[in-house]
């Protein structure tokens, strides 16, 4: 019985990760294709909400990041899983200094017609850099928060 529940969770996580990878490809593909942000989004709002998520990340407030997201986003990882994934970046890179690069873009899901706004931001830290790929749905709910 436990195995069946675990398989459902793994399947659900893999489905959400596939959707996140699609959005990442769409957002980064949009950068090179020159896709502009939809009129449904305000560029400054996208930037400020992305910055809010980065500030929560820097404060190690992973629950706060989850609270910004859609239900699907919230179901993706637990607080502890976020901590396991994110803390090593902060431990390695040290104190946040500034955002050194920001690219805002949009994408549209051809199948559903849903539009997304997002930002790729590069944070400069004391001992390195972290790139954030952050995506929002039309309600400005977080659908993606990737770091590398």
Order of helices and strands: HHHHHEEEE
CATH architecture: Roll
**Alpha-carbon distance between the termini?**
36 Å
- Annotated CATH topology: Nuclear Transport Factor 2, Chain: A
Decide which structural class fits the backbone: alpha+beta
Q: What do the pLDDT scores average to?
A: 83
Radius of gyration: 16 Å
CATH classification class: Alpha Beta
User: Shape from CA axes?
Assistant: globular
Would you write up a description of this structure?
By secondary structure, this protein is α+β, with helices and mostly antiparallel strands. It has a single domain (2-147), classed as Nuclear Transport Factor 2, Chain: A (Roll), CATH 3.10.450.590. The chain contains 5 helices and 4 strands, in the order H-H-H-H-H-E-E-E-E. A 4-stranded antiparallel beta sheet has the order 1-2-3-4. The longest helix is centred in the N-terminal third of the chain and has 32 residues, at 2-33. It is globular, with a radius of gyration of 16 Å. It starts with a helix and ends with a strand. Residues 26-34 have low confidence and may be disordered.
List the helices and strands and how they pair.
Layout: H1 2-33, H2 43-58, H3 62-67, H4 71-76, H5 79-93, E1 96-108, E2 115-125, E3 128-136, E4 142-147
Antiparallel strand pairs: 1-2, 2-3, 3-4
Brief descriptors of the model:
four-stranded antiparallel sheet, 5 helices, alpha+beta, Nuclear Transport Factor 2, Chain: A
Task: Sum this structure up briefly.
With 148 residues, the protein is α+β, with helices and mostly antiparallel strands.
């Amino acid at each position: 019985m436990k195995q069946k529940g675990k398989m459902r969770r793994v399947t659900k996580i893999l489905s959400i990760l596939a959707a996140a990878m699609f959005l990442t490809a769409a957002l980064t593909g949009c950068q090179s294709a020159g896709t502009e942000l939809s009129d449904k989004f305000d560029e400054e709002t996208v930037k400020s909400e992305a910055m809010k998520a980065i500030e929560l990340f820097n404060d190690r407030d992973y629950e706060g990041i989850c609270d910004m997201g859609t239900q699907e986003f919230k179901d993706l990882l637990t607080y502890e899983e976020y901590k396991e994934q994110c803390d090593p970046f902060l431990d390695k890179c040290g104190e946040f200094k500034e955002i050194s690069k920001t690219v805002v873009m949009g994408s549209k899901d051809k199948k559903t017609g849903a539009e997304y706004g997002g930002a790729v931001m590069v944070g400069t830290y004391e001992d390195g850099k972290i790139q954030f790929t952050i995506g929002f749905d039309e309600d400005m709910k977080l659908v993606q928060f990737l770091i590398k």
